[in-house]
Design brief:
It is a single chain. The chain has helices at about 15-30, 60-65, 70-85, 105-115, 120-130, 140-150, 155-160, 165-180, 200-214; strands at about 5-10, 35-45, 55, 100, 185-190, 195. The chain is α+β, with helices and mostly antiparallel strands. It has one domain (about 5-214): Glutaredoxin, CATH 3.40.30. It has a four-stranded mixed sheet. Strands 3-4 form a two-stranded antiparallel sheet.
Length: about 210
């Protein structure tokens, strides 16, 4: 008999550890098939809410934000690439030179939840940025992701042309900040249990099994 777990996956589409965390979570859920059923909701978090439309060079950004040297940034990117590869996700680091604003992507993810297609869109947005090196603030890129997720492109275009879901996204962002979440991914199970970071599948598997049993 399944134990259904509500999972709020708080993340940003420009966060590589969020892509890794989602792959790990999905791998864990596959291993728990027959034991656990997941009701996943993607919640918004912007790593760089004040980022301008032109974006910023990623090495420069990491240096300013975290004090990383170019050598440290290169080593970190290689670690991320290897982690992704082990989980079946492709990070093409040579294609990802800049970091961008992601607010409109979050608005579309909020919209996609109304039709139960958040997961498909989230994965398409991760692929657009990390695999294809595309700009997730660009509306044409966003609409291609919508199409890849088999969602209504015309309706998505209408959403992007308005302020639809802007207030809801900001409200959800503030809610999780108020809950003490300041780094992502943050995976909240049944509104009570927190798993932080891009953990390996084994960590998710063990935690989900324990929560389901409890």
């Amino acid at each position: 008999m399944y134990s259904t777990l509500k999972i709020d996956f708080v993340s940003d589409v420009s966060c590589p550890w969020c892509a890794i965390g989602l792959q790990s979570l999905q791998t864990a859920l596959e291993r728990l098939d027959g034991e656990v059923q997941a009701d996943i909701h993607f919640q918004p978090f912007e790593l760089n809410p004040k980022m301008g439309p032109e974006g910023q060079d990623i090495t420069e950004h990491l240096s300013q934000k975290y004090g990383s040297t170019p050598e440290q940034a290169t080593a970190a990117r290689e670690n991320i690439r290897q982690r992704g590869e082990a989980l079946g996700f492709t990070f093409n680091m040579d294609k990802r030179a800049r970091i961008y604003n992601t607010f409109d992507a979050h608005r579309l993810l909020h919209w996609a939840e109304t039709s139960g297609q958040q997961l498909a869109l989230k994965k398409a947005l991760f692929a657009a940025y990390f695999t294809n090196g595309e700009d997730p603030s660009n509306h044409e890129v966003l609409l291609r992701a919508v199409q890849a997720a088999d969602l209504d492109v015309d309706e998505a275009q209408r959403v992007l042309a308005t302020d639809d879901y802007a207030a809801e996204v900001r409200e959800q962002e503030q809610f999780y900040l108020d809950q003490g979440i300041h780094s992502v991914p943050a995976v909240v199970i049944n509104d009570r249990h927190l798993i932080s970071g891009g953990q390996p599948p084994e960590v998710f598997e063990q935690a989900l099994r324990q929560i389901a049993a409890g």
